[in-house]
Amino acid sequence: MYSHGSESLIKQAREIQEPELQKFYSRLVKLLQGKEFGHETIDSLQRLHLILSATKYTRTSLFCFQSLESRQSEGPAHSLAHTLPILNTILTHSPECLTEDHLTLLSKKLVDWLRYASITQGGGASSGGFFTGPRSRQPVPIAELDGTVSGDFFTVLCVGQGFTEDQWMNVYSFSMLRHWLLTYHSVSSGSTAADTDDRSEVDGSVVSMVSATSSSSRLLPPKERLREKAFQYCLRLIEQSDRKAHKRTDTELQKACLVEAVCILDCVCVEDASLVYRTFPCVKALFGRLSSDLTFARVLLPIAQFYLNHGEMAAVDCESVWKLVFGQFPAELFNDPFLAHELLRFLRLNLESLQLRVPQYTRSFPNLLKFLAWDSPAVVDDFVDLLPSLVTAETAVELFHTLLDLPCLSATLVLQLRSTCSPISESGGRGLLSLDAFRSPSFRGLFLFLLRAEAGSGDTIDRLSTLHELLAEAVDWQRVVQCAQTVPVLLHIFFNTVVTAADEKLLAHLILAMLERSSLLLNLPTYIKEIHRYTFTHTVELCHLLRLCKLHPSLVVDQSHELLEFAGTTANVYSKEEIYTHVVWVLGEYLSVSCDSRCSVRLITSCFEALEAVLFEITSSAPPPGAACPAPRVVTTLMSALAKLASRSHDLIPRVSLFLSKLRTVTRGGSVAWCSDEEDLIAIVTRGEELWSLLKTPGVAQSVLTPPQHVTTPQWHRDTNVSMPLQLRTLTSLTHSHAGG
């Protein structure tokens, strides 16, 4: 709640009438044109802020461009400098407040400030002598950054002892030019004024006479004329950037101005395609000049944007640009946080165009992932957006391996940087064995594969276990640990993309890779556990293996040999519980004629015998030394899988029934060596009794353990014959519940 005084002020601000508001604006403009700002100015600005807040910017534009319409003779230009930030705020938050008249006015003003600023230094210079005074000071021309006298119009890259007011407006105008060019399409076209003279007004100065000679450009409407002058201004900046600056800060200024100039050229070429042919020779020459110097990387990215937007129209070969962006940048500047941010932003903003027109993009994922491997926390959000675009039929399997090897890549990048320093040792004084391995020709191939720039040289390497041993001391490095923490999330995104796009052949290859890599991971215990959990999670809905097989059940028959080999290895029960459990469940669920007509009795029997042998072994003896007892879920999943397989081949029912009956007999004697928890044992026995009871009636067992498709995927809402009994039962239940209440 506002106080009574505050409510009164807000009410006054909302009810202020137009004539009173205009008088207030005029008085404030005069106050701002003074050399010093007193209490009255501050009070007036506070009142203006209240009015603008109470009216939601609807009158802001009136105050700005009154300011712009005022002639220089009415006061100094620094009042206009205060107006431009307000204008910029309007462009950002409420561009619809501006009208066509406002657009015309500001476009003409920007032309004057950008193109026709004074070409002499502010303050002037003395001609010398005893009677030197203000009248004897001579105008001194502006200079270039290399110290030579400027022979062209003023820009932000001109220097002098001081700037005149219109030169400052030149600087301010350039700083907001791109924003204006990008935003002025949003202005309202409802209010326009007849303007028979499109000429800009630079009052009473020599520059106005110079501008009057530019008759050809004066024939253009204000927006088109502004584009033309912006084009000329940017070309002038590019020419100035080739000059050798005397100060390091000026060199950085040249780079910053080049970035802005190329971005503005891109804007004007998007607006007017005819400018593309005039602009490309200059941009192409600039790329040729800068491409060999990676210190200009921040400039080369806007150039890449220009090539992406206009290269096809101009029929220009862009190969060298993409080699630089997707090749050298990630390979050599992966540890530059500014470039990482800018490049990944460039990719996100242009994702669709890159996928359609730049084939190098998807092939470059081994290089791009170096940014993630080096500084995962800073860029993981970018890769959450980018990763789906990198998944294609050609890259999916290699990308899967690369994601799993990201912690190895992180360690390798650290070693690559450290290898330039010798000797290197840890804080305790011990030398890094991994660094010796990195420098060794014997292992060089392993590290070079991780550091490859493009996909296509192979999905993975043969000696992964050797690589993991060489990097054993890197498992507690901070970068490696942080990188490992991001991999499960990226794998989840990867699989969500794969299941919607891949064909069965690719998915089959991917399943083999999943089984293979389950035991080939860098030895970070938490990392291994998380990878197993995200890839073979205990939640059925999220298990990526189960999702793949549910979408394409025939994959189980296609890969039955590999799946049976994995499920028939008893050691996997103890070392890969999550993975083993789901492989067994997949075999029991989808090895059926109803899923694939190729599923023969022989294949079912072969699978049954492999699982039977494992179940018998783990329930007949104690676990191996150092291993825990098999998880109850593994045992019950094995029993369920055997029962399902037996229900499809009735000759196998006696064998599984015999095992289940023996299980009851053995457990009556108390504890057993393969299960240390009494509650777990009871749960296992209970499950066994349920399955044994089902198998006594094979027909019922088959309908329960292998239900037909219309039961597993009911469509009662579509079949009136089936839905009617359901409706009757529902109505009866509701009636009884109401009667009971």
UniProtKB/TrEMBL annotation:
Residues 253-370 form the AP-5 complex subunit zeta-1 ARM repeats domain. It holds the Pfam family TPR_AP5Z1. Residues 1-60, 65-212 form the AP-5 complex subunit zeta-1 N-terminal TPR domain. One of its GO terms (cellular component) is AP-5 adaptor complex. InterPro entries: AP5Z1 (IPR028222), AP5Z1_ARM (IPR055450), TPR_AP5Z1_C (IPR056856), TPR_AP5Z1_N (IPR056857). Residues 382-734 form the AP-5 complex subunit zeta-1 C-terminal TPR domain. This is Adaptor related protein complex 5 subunit zeta 1. The gene is AP5Z1.
